[in-house]
Amino acid sequence: MNERERILDLVKQGVITSEEALVLLENLAKKQSAPQGKQSQPDATTGQTQAAPDEDSALTKLNTKIAEVSGSLDATSNQIKKTQAKVAANKEQIIVLDTMEDLDTLTAAKYEERGTLKRENAQLGEKLVQLADQQEQLRQTLADLHRQKRQLTKQSLAGILPDDWQDQTKDALNDLGKTVSVTTNQIGSMVKKTVSSVLDNVDWKDVNIKVPGLATEKFSHTFSYPDSQASIIDVKVANGDVTLVEGDGRDVVIQADIKLYGKMAGESPLQSFLDRSRVEVTDDHLIFQVPNKRIQADLIITVPKRDYDHVSLRLLNGNLKVNALSGKDFFAKSTNGDLTFSGLTAVMLETEGVNGSVKVNGQVHDLVVDAVNGDIKFKGDAKTLELKTVNGTIRTTLVSDFKALTASSVNGDVKLAMPASVAVTGEARTRFGSIKSRMSGVEADAKTKALSLDRPGTGAGTLKASVSSGTIQLKDTDLSK
Q1: Quick check: helix, strand or coil at residue 164?
Q2: Run of H or E residues at 294
């Protein structure tokens, strides 16, 4: 076997590639043509040797151009990735600022910052479109160059490889395929037996499989502020439940169960949380704000027993519970969650809710409740009440005289109870429902759509109740319960 046949045999066996074979054959042809350079009669080998430098030069130029285009494509792809990362970072910051707006904490500077980020993202979006077009053009150019290289390589091999090289290679591959098929069947049979043995001998009840998901960090931390004199409480949380209770001591203690969603840069999970939150306790204020939607913070806040000047509690997604607190001005808001006040003593309580019920039990001089999808329930002593909901039922139980009560529901009932000794004047009106009365001194038949009230008693309470498709029910409060 001469050197040429040996090179071809290595190609068939897959030891070397066709391009490597071409280089070896060209070198071999150059060696063989050297002593024949003085002869005047050229042969086929001499012609191929003369054509080889031109083909080699063209192949070198193609490889150089392919390298240049590949470099430009990589640079464009990296630029696209950096631009996309910048857009994603801007979007995350915009979401945080939007959440701050939902929690009514967006300052003028933050508002301007949000506008700047949106304008920057618009410019980056246009840049991404241009980069994507450039990337597509470079890919097409690179594909054309590779196609030219394959054609040039094919032409070079056409004069070197024997005419039946494809048939010889096909026969070799067929033999290899048969060998691989037999080996695959043997391996498959072995794997099947092994898996069957595992299934028969493993107690799967004791096996726990973790499915990859969003990276999360969970931890708990207690914030403690001894001998706090703060009389203003400001809590804003994007995701999480908040419980505000009155304690026996003089310290402010905040027990926080925190989850961080996604990877966050920080020395520790706590530091990542603090970098994205505002926790501050001074002589006047207790501030705990978590506006980032990638953080869930379930809080139990224990505060000293005192009359608080102002309490503001704003939640985006979470339930709020306030137990046995006393103060002047209370405001609570939750977009998705229930609001519950137990044992409350307040001069003013105002609540806003979108999806969730509102329950208040205690003594409130002025009560304002505005809900969209949720029930409203109040039991206690109040002088002025303004209760409104779109989809929900209003239940009010007064235990003493009042000044004014307004209750309205679009798609729901209104159920009102007040002591029999309390004076009531005003009206109750429904469009498609009915009015029912078990209140002493007030009678209504089944077909009544509008009812005027004028019952004597203590105080001077004015009532205005209205529904669209529900029922209005009036009754006396059972003070024995």
Answers
A1: coil
A2: none
Question: What digits encode the pLDDT tens for the residues 110-151?
Answer: 888 889 998 998 899 888 889 988 888 888 888 888 888 778
For residue 296 the two structure tokens come to 């869930």
Output the six-digit token pair for 184. Answer: 């695959």
Q: Phi and psi dihedrals of 132, rounded to 5? A: -65, -40
> Phi and psi at residue 31, in whole multiples of 5°?
-65, -40
Tell me the per-residue pLDDT of 15-48, one tens digit each, with 9 for 90 and over. Answer: 676 667 777 777 777 666 655 444 444 444 444 4
Tell me how far apart the alpha carbons of residues 372 and 370 are, in angstroms, rounded to a whole number: 7
Q: How far apart are the C-alpha atoms of 220 and 158, rounded to whole Å?
A: 73
Tokens of 284: 């006047």
What is the pTM assigned to this prediction?
Answer: 0.61
Average pLDDT of the segment spanning 157-167: 57
* 373-387 pLDDT per residue, tens: 999 999 999 999 999
Question: Distance (Å, rounded) from C-alpha 358 to C-alpha 372?
Answer: 11
Candidates 450, 419, 418, 449; CA nearest to 433 is 449
Rg (alpha carbons) of the chain, rounded to whole number: 41
CA dist 411 and 197 (Å) reads: 63
Residue whose C-alpha is closest to residue 324's, from 307, 348, 299: 307
Six token digits for residue 320: 């709020």
Report the interhelical angle of 44-102 vs 18-33 (nearest 10°): 150
